[in-house]
Amino acid sequence: EGCCCIAIMVQKYQSPVRVYKYPFELIMAAYERRFPTCPLIPMFVGSDTVNEFKSEDGAIHVIERRCKLDVDAPRLLKKIAGVDYVYFVQKNSLNSRERTLHIEAYNETFSNRVIINEHCCYTVHPENEDWTCFEQSASLDIKSFFGFESTVEKIAMKQYTSNIKKGKEIIEYYLRQLEEEGITFVPRWSPPSITPSSETSSSSSKKQAASMAVVIPEAALKEGLSGDALSSPSAPEPVVGTPDDKLDADYIKRYLGDLTPLQESCLIRLRQWLQETHKGKIPKDEHILRFLRARDFNIDKAREIMCQSLTWRKQHQVDYILETWTPPQVLQDYYAGGWHHHDKDGRPLYVLRLGQMDTKGLVRALGEEALLRYVLSINEEGLRRCEENTKVFGRPISSWTCLVDLEGLNMRHLWRPGVKALLRIIEVVEANYPETLGRLLILRAPRVFPVLWTLVSPFIDDNTRRKFLIYAGNDYQGPGGLLDYIDKEIIPDFLSGECMCEVPEGGLVPKSLYRTAEELENEDLKLWTETIYQSASVFKGAPHEILIQIVDASSVITWDFDVCKGDIVFNIYHSKRSPQPPKKDSLGAHSITSPGGNNVQLIDKVWQLGRDYSMVESPLICKEGESVQGSHVTRWPGFYILQWKFHSMPACAASSLPRVDDVLASLQVSSHKCKVMYYTEVIGSEDFRGSMTSLESSHSGFSQLSAATTSSSQSHSSSMISR
């Protein structure tokens, strides 16, 4: 401490406040013992006094020294630079009346190539006049150094940080030395026997108040704060800032963890910048630190993502979400997640039974926004719990652990709008809650999991991905499993533990709670309907067909559709030749575009089944109101046609005479019209990374989530209907 140092990074360093629980005068006696040389700082070879000034009353003592440093640098560099020692000028200004010491230092050697400035100050603790505070700041600017700029910077940083750490030890060493010599008290300065006029004493108290309001050392040089501004609560806040604005070293260790001097400096500078510029609620220190960690303590990058996040919080009123937002009942009943005690490290534990959760049903009943809001409220609660656990466990806890149980995961979870909603949620959480996930335990991963993982993992940053542990089947019960991370007593009952877990069980969201396609379309948010779903009309004699061209055999065609009106038959065909696109001009049976959705036929009337095209899936009859999902692994390249066809009721078997109802029904054109909303996507086989088998076998592992499963194994397809 106190400038025996060389420089720091290319910019600035700002220390936290270090508190010595000793009076200022005793600390000064210890500090003075460092000169002219100090055995504890090997590089500090010697010092000579260049200038000295003492005021008549002895209150002010300014001393300027030229310090000789033997910098630990490679011999070659010293040779090139042509020097053995580096000289610094250090000016100490002691004001015994105000009980402050200001230290300024700058380099004399190479001052045209490298500019190093350092500022330190010792002051009286604002709340306890028998304690002393220390702070330092420094800047380094390397203009040029024979092409060795980055080497010089590294040497400077290394020397500087090691000296910062040493500073406290040195003062404590000399305090012990004083104590051994029987010196445990040094009287305060008092003016010579002439009593001063009342005026000077009042001005000195003003000055003392000013020096207490140090934010950065230079601030102590600025005077003109009235003494009462600090004491009377109603007075406006002093411009320079009060001691609460500061972080002291002990607080950092207790609440934020072990940080290197440079990390502390980044935190203090970023926090100071926020206090000076940000209107509105300033995030807590531990949250500022998360943004710094997420960007490896690059202060500019961290500032950028943090500002974006602060704006986002304001726009969405996230600060008030826990107090003001009540999740809809559907979420409370069907969202299978909740907080459950804590892990072995004291991190809050969140349990999510994703496999039991009807993500599709939740998105259909609520839309994406409510789901996102719910996830945000979970994250806000997580931040609150981290703070609480930090207090309870007596050590910094800044992240939580998430346990995801995939028992029951199936094709239903691969429903793309659901996956897209999930990706969007992951993106928002990654951007605004960085470094909050301490560990993610994924349990009972089924064979379909690699597919979901392939879709999701590109959106998760590498830092976060390293925290994932994935267990298939019952592996979590074995060595290296759950017991390494969670105490036996709190392993949830559904994982064959003994702890009753209050997390809702999930299950299918009843169709009656779905919002209709119309409601969704009319909503401002339109959500995924406009971006993903297309609607089509199907008439008697005029099916709706779409073409999918496959170049790479063994791709996967996935589909998802809702039968909004009427009953239909769904077919998939393959053809080696491309069907002629429907003519745009004719409004014949070929192509009808109506407000109710489009209607296109592609299969030429002259084509024969078995010759021009073939059926690759058994026909699937779908009733009004059903949701159907499925996939088909293509065996050949070529053209695949997905077809939705009007399902005509078989003629009444009892008599050949038409029934009155049927006649009436056939007169109403509307009964010949069905409506579907569909979405299809082709996933390239390489995206599956060998998890094809997981698709083939996924239908056998379907849980009670699906009411009916149809599958034709010969074509490797699985399709399912949820009624």
TrEMBL record:
Q: What cellular component terms from Gene Ontology apply here?
A: Golgi apparatus
CDD domains named in the record: SEC14 (cd00170)
**Pfam families documented for this protein:** CRAL_TRIO, CRAL_TRIO_N, PRELI
Q: Which InterPro entries match?
A: CRAL-TRIO_dom, CRAL-TRIO_dom_sf, CRAL/TRIO_N_dom, CRAL/TRIO_N_dom_sf, GOLD_dom, GOLD_dom_sf, PRELI/MSF1_dom, SEC14/CRAL-TRIO_domain
The UniProt keyword set, sorted, is: Cytoplasm, Golgi apparatus, Immunity, Innate immunity, Phosphoprotein, Signal transduction inhibitor
**UniProt KW Cytoplasm keyword:** yes
Cytoplasm found in the keyword field: yes
* An example Gene Ontology biological process: innate immune response
- Show where the GOLD domain sits: 529-682
User: Which intervals hold domain CRAL-TRIO?
Assistant: 327-503
PRELI/MSF1 domain location is: 11-183
Q: How does it assemble?
A: Interacts with RIGI (via tandem CARD domain); the interaction is direct. Interacts (via GOLD domain) with SLC18A3; the interaction is direct. Interacts with SLC5A7 (via GOLD domain); the interaction is direct.
What PANTHER family is this protein classified in?
SEC14 RELATED PROTEIN, SEC14-LIKE PROTEIN 1
> What function does the entry list?
May play a role in innate immunity by inhibiting the antiviral RIG-I signaling pathway. In this pathway, functions as a negative regulator of RIGI, the cytoplasmic sensor of viral nucleic acids. Prevents the interaction of RIGI with MAVS/IPS1, an important step in signal propagation. May also regulate the SLC18A3 and SLC5A7 cholinergic transporters.
The entry's protein name is SEC14-like protein 1
Source organism per entry reads Homo sapiens
